Structure formats: structure tokens, C-alpha cells
């Protein structure tokens, strides 16, 4: 089993095309099915640890994989039974059914087993399961102590993560060949359990991949505070949010953080390393500024609009977050001539771009192309997209991030990466990765201040 970090993510159509290229090169479809089934069976054998296994087989190729799994487990001497929804309907599945020399029970009446392997339906599902199939799957899953899905749990939309009904939760999902969007998008990602990738020899490159540990900028003997990156944080009516962003930028590695505010400077404000000045539009024209972060706590009054206008007109690299996303429009973003990263959560995304429609990946790519910005579409299933279509999907986030200020921390971390000279997509990925790792380090019931401080430890 392969860790998923950095791995390609393919839609159902892309996966079928990748398989077809193998077939065009002379690989028999049954050979690919055998690879998949045997790879799954090796994982199931380890996970089952001698317990009895029930394999559920559907009528298509996912069911064919299931028959190969059962036949292989049988050869290994494991106690295994097969239940099916009916006869196989594809040539490859018919071939695989011939490998299994035991009885095939009806899904409706089969008895449960401690280990359940779901090979009913895989990629390409577009409707809910039949009621009897749904009931049988739910009954058997409830009774099992270990639930394993082959490629995808049955009842999941592979491209958008939609759940077609009350799909059971699984302990492990074994992705075949490549990851699919549903492994990472909500709500389906929430029922996958641990997602593990099995190599079955399918070459894949669809322009989308999973977030991975980035190569972070590091200072050397020639570095100074400006070469490490100068970040300007434009403050507004809620200074706590911009202070969080400033702290995060410094903790993420920026060499110089400038907090620009109209409010009187607070005596003893921390960290002391952050430089605090009154906001002046001309300050943003300083060529030493590697990134401007605007939006956290900005407010939505005329003063806030004026600050946003100054930031957009500066030509400096921008991170646009929070209130700024409520004040700007997509066309104004496009007119900004410098690199830019927008970081909307779901509500801000809808406000800025309208009804998302379809898969979150598709909506985010459309937004990036429309604005010319890298878009970080935040959530438990954060999606990052560049204007050229490159897309990065993130595994399910720490649910304790659902607290005030964590988005401000993310904006500051991304600002530090952008100021350090990373191109916008790389800067966004690095900031999101740092943010996620900091949340893991914090554990449970943390506050945004803890998250910002943890960035230093993650950089270590």
C-alpha cells in the first residue's frame, strides 16, 4: 500500500482512459482485473488476520475484482464467502466469476462475517443503489467489525464525493491504481476510513494530485530579513484577526512582518518582532514587500474599500482573505497585475463566484481561471486550483480547525510563502500544508493563537 501524499487524482473518465491506453498497448482487461484483485487480497489478508471474510460482488468490473479477491483468499487458506446482487454482466467479470469455485450467496439472505469486503459498485455510479441492495449492504456492514471498500464504497459519486443514500462508514478504502476525487472530497471522504493506494500498473497524470510535504524556503548564510520575505498585513476594524495573520506570517518563516493599522498602537503588543505602523497607501508601494495580506478583520466600510483598492493597485503579490473577499469582485481581481491568491471558505466562495454547481474541484478551477488567481477553496476538503487548471486536493482536515481565527492564520502562512518567492500555487500548497501540520501538532480544543505559534515547530 502506497501513502497518498502527492499522488495523482483521476476522475472516472480519466481513469477509464488510462486503462484503455493499457489495453491499446496489448494488456488484456482480465490481466488488469487480476492485478487489482490480487493486490486487494494481499491487503485484506493482512487486515483480516485470520478472521472470516465476506466479499460482496456487483455485476460489473468492481464485482469482478471481488471474485478475484475471494478466489485468491481461498487459495491462501482464509475462510471466505461470496455474496452477489446477481450474475456478472461484463466479459471480465464473467471471467473472474469462473475463478471462484465456491457458492455465490444472495446478498439479501447471506449471513454477516467479521470482515466485509465491498466490491459491489466502483467508479462511475450516478444514482442511488436499489433499496434491497442498500438494505443488504447496511445490514452486513453493521454486523462486521472490519469494513473494507474496493476502490470506492458503493453508493459514492466518484468525481464529486456525493453520497447516493445512507452509505455505511468503512474502516479502510483500497484505491485501485490512482486516487479518485471522492477519496478526498466531502461528504464521501468522511466515510472512507483510512485511504490506501494500491499500485496496479496504471500510469496516471490528470493535472490533479494530493497535497504533499513541500520544499520550504530555508535561509542560508547570505540571507537577511528582506530576502527571507517581507509581508505587509493590512489591518482593519478587528485588529485581532490581522494580528493572528501577522503572527502566523512570522512563525511560518517571513523575515519581516509589517502590521499596518489605523488604530493606535497597543503598548506591549506581541510579538514584539512584528513592526507596527499606521496605514498609508504609499506604504504598499514599497518594492521590498514580497506579499500583502488583506482581509482578516478588514471590515466592510468605505475605509476598508479604500485599503483594498490600494492593495489591488499596488501590483504587489496579494493574499486576499476574509472581508476583502466580500468587497472585491471577480473582475477586479483579474485586473490586478501581480501574483494573487484568494482564500475563500464556502460562503465567501458562493458570494464571490455564485452557485458552485457540480464538483468542488470543477468550481474551484473555474474560479481560478476567471480571476487569474490561485484559489484556495477552504473547508474540511480544501481544494487549491491555479488558473492553468492544475489542482491540489487535501485530505480531511482536523475538525478542531472549526474555530475563529484559523483562517487568518492560514492567510498569514500563505503570505509568508508567497513573500519568500514561491510561485502562487506552490505558496498556497505550502501554507495549507503548514496549517494542517500545525493543527495536528495542536491536537484538540486549541485556539487560533496556539495554531499560529505551532507553525514554528512545524518549520523545525
Automatic annotation (TrEMBL):
It catalyses: (6R)-NADPHX = (6S)-NADPHX; (6S)-NADHX + ADP = AMP + phosphate + NADH + H(+); (6R)-NADHX = (6S)-NADHX; (6S)-NADPHX + ADP = AMP + phosphate + NADPH + H(+). Residues 15-208 form the YjeF N-terminal domain. PROSITE patterns: YJEF_C_1, YJEF_C_2, YJEF_C_3, YJEF_N. Its cofactor is Mg(2+); K(+). It comes from the Bacteria. Binds 1 potassium ion per subunit. Pfam families: Carb_kinase, YjeF_N. GO terms for biological process: metabolite repair; nicotinamide nucleotide metabolic process. (6S)-NADPHX binds at residues 61-65, 122-128, 151, 241, 297, 345, 408. Residues 208-460 form the YjeF C-terminal domain. Keywords: ATP-binding, Isomerase, Kinase, Lyase, Metal-binding, Multifunctional enzyme, NAD, NADP, Nucleotide-binding, Potassium, Transferase. K(+) binds at residues 62, 118, 154. AMP binds at residues 378-382, 407. GO terms for molecular function: ADP-dependent NAD(P)H-hydrate dehydratase activity; ATP binding; kinase activity; metal ion binding; NAD(P)HX epimerase activity. Its EC number is 4.2.1.136, 5.1.99.6. Homotetramer. Catalyzes the dehydration of the S-form of NAD(P)HX at the expense of ADP, which is converted to AMP. Together with NAD(P)HX epimerase, which catalyzes the epimerization of the S- and R-forms, the enzyme allows the repair of both epimers of NAD(P)HX, a damaged form of NAD(P)H that is a result of enzymatic or heat-dependent hydration. Catalyzes the epimerization of the S- and R-forms of NAD(P)HX, a damaged form of NAD(P)H that is a result of enzymatic or heat-dependent hydration. This is a prerequisite for the S-specific NAD(P)H-hydrate dehydratase to allow the repair of both epimers of NAD(P)HX. In the C-terminal section; belongs to the NnrD/CARKD family. NCBIfam families: yjeF_cterm, yjeF_nterm. This is Bifunctional NAD(P)H-hydrate repair enzyme. The gene is nnrE.
Amino acid at each position: 500500500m502506497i501513502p497518498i501524499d502527492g499522488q495523482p487524482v483521476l476522475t472516472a473518465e480519466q481513469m477509464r482512459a488510462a486503462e484503455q491506453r493499457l489495453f491499446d498497448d496489448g494488456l488484456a482487461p482480465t490481466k488488469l482485473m487480476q492485478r487489482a484483485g490480487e493486490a486487494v487480497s494481499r491487503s485484506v489478508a493482512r487486515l483480516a488476520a485470520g478472521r472470516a471474510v465476506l466479499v460482496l460482488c456487483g455485476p460489473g468490473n468492481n464485482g469482478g475484482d471481488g471474485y478475484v479477491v475471494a478466489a485468491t483468499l481461498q487459495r491462501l487458506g482464509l475462510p471466505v464467502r461470496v455474496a452477489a446482487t446477481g450474475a456478472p454482466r461484463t466479459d471480465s467479470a464473467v471471467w473472474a466469476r469462473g475463478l471462484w469455485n465456491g457458492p455465490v450467496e444472495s446478498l439479501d439472505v447471506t449471513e454477516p462475517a467479521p470482515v466485509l469486503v465491498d466490491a459491489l459498485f466502483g467508479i462511475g455510479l450516478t444514482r442511488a443503489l436499489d433499496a434491497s441492495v442498500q438494505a443488504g449492504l447496511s445490514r452486513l456492514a453493521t454486523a462486521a467489525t472490519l469494513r473494507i471498500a474496493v476502490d470506492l464504497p458503493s453508493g459514492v459519486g466518484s468525481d464529486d464525493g456525493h453520497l447516493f443514500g445512507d452509505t455505511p462508514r468503512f474502516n479502510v478504502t483500497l484505491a485501485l491504481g490512482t486516487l479518485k476525487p471522492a477519496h478526498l472530497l466531502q461528504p464521501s471522504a468522511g466515510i472512507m476510513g483510512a485511504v490506501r493506494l494500491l499500485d496496479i500498473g496504471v500510469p496516471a497524470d490528470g493535472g490533479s494530485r494530493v497535497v504533499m510535504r513541500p520544499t520550504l524556503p530555508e535561509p542560508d548564510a547570505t540571507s537577511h530579513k528582506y530576502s527571507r520575505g517581507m509581508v505587509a498585513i493590512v489591518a482593519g476594524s478587528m485588529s485581532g484577526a490581522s494580528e493572528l495573520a501577522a503572527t502566523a506570517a512570522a512563525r511560518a518563516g517571513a523575515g519581516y512582518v509589517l502590521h499596518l493599522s489605523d488604530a493606535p498602537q497597543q503598548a506591549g503588543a506581541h510579538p514584539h518582532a512584528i513592526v507596527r505602523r499606521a496605514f498609508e497607501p504609499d506604504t504598499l508601494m514599497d518594492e521590498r514587500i514580497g506579499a500583502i495580506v488583506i482581509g482578516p478583520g478588514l471590515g466592510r466600510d468605505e475605509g476598508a474599500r479604500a485599503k483594498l483598492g490600494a492593495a489591488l493597485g499596488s501590483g504587489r503579490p496579494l493574499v486576499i482573505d476574509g472581508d476583502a473577499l466580500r468587497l472585491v469582485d471577480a473582475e477586479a481581481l483579474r485586473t490586478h497585475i501581480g501574483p494573487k491568491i484568494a482564500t475563500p471558505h464556502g460562503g465567501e466562495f458562493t458570494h464571490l463566484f455564485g452557485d458552485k454547481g457540480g464538483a468542488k474541484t470543477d468550481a474551484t478551477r473555474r474560479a481560478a481561471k476567471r480571476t487569474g488567481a490561485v484559489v484556495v477553496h477552504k473547508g474540511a476538503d480544501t481544494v487549491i486550483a491555479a488558473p492553468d487548471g492544475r489542482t491540489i486536493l487535501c485530505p480531511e482536515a482536523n475538525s478542531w480547525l472549526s474555530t475563529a481565527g484559523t483562517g487568518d492564520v492560514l492567510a498569514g502562512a500563505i503570505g509568508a510563502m508567497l513573500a519568500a518567492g514561491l510561485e502562487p500555487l506552490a505558496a498556497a500548497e505550502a501554507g495549507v500544508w503548514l496549517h494542517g501540520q500545525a493543527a495536528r501538532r495542536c491536537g484538540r480544543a486549541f485556539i487560533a493563537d496556539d495554531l499560529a505559534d505551532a507553525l514554528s515547530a512545524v518549520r523545525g
